[in-house]
Amino acid sequence: MRVVIIEDEKPNATRLKNILLDISPAITIEAVLDTVTDSVAWFKQHPHPDVTLMDIRLADGLSFDIFPLVTLSCPVIFTTAYDEYAIRAFKVNSIDYLLKPIEKDDLQQALERIHQQQIRTGPTEMVQQLLEFFKQKEVSYRSRFMLPFRDGYKTVLVDDVDFIFYAFNVTHLVLKDKTQVALTQTMDELEEQLDPKQFFRANRQHIINISSIDNIQNYFSGKLKIRLKRDLEREVLVSKEKVPVFKQWLDK
């Protein structure tokens, strides 16, 4: 079986590759892609695989944006980190859906369904339905965090969050008063839970509040460097691929 992985988080892509090869050494990973742009270019230039594993959120947009630009001739298994995109109702024919972290048994069952049903065509009308569902679904974003405090807990409003960073395998919440708190949630989970109008995933290590930005400077290789108001020593870099998305986010 020939497989293409579309995933912009390298650890997740590596995990998928390892699981696939553990399921069967006969599986061939044709390509690992991380943007809508690269995915469209690859599909236009190469024979399509037997199945594509496709993360919903990519560095330069939603994976749904691929379909108007190229006609896929293979089934797709969508993946995402947070159940806000609960699209299990669309598990028909050439579309499946797995929640991260992907488990071997779940992925194996999805691949077996494709093999047993001998699905060879890509999603068409169903993708449009998914896109409409995704756009129209009323999302309830996180408004507060309940955090350990002394012998109990305290509530922190999302509006009081300055930025979030990931270091040494721990996610840290930084408040506007510079208090830091360790969180149990992953960066992927928080990216889905927080209002995208207010928060932006600048890179794998940082999610920033729009109100935390002090200034933005051009950086090497088409990147941008963000300086934060309350942590002037910290440099937050935005990759070249994410720069257009970042500018669009700011210009609303």
From TrEMBL:
For the modification 4-aspartylphosphate, the affected residues are: 55
PROSITE patterns linked to this entry: HTH_LYTTR, RESPONSE_REGULATORY
Has UniProt tagged this entry with the keyword Phosphoprotein? yes
Specify the Response regulatory domain's residue ranges: 2-115
Start and end residues of each HTH LytTR-type domain = 173-252
- Signal peptide positions on this chain: none
Sorted alphabetically, the keyword list is:
Phosphoprotein
InterPro entries of this UniProt entry?
CheY-like_superfamily, LytR-like, LytTR_DNA-bd_dom, Sig_transdc_resp-reg_receiver
Q: Which Pfam families match?
A: LytTR, Response_reg
PANTHER family linked: STAGE 0 SPORULATION PROTEIN A HOMOLOG, TRANSCRIPTIONAL REGULATOR-RELATED
Protein name (record): Response regulator transcription factor
Q: Which organism is it from?
A: Chitinophaga hostae
Classification from the root reads: Bacteria, Pseudomonadati, Bacteroidota, Chitinophagia, Chitinophagales
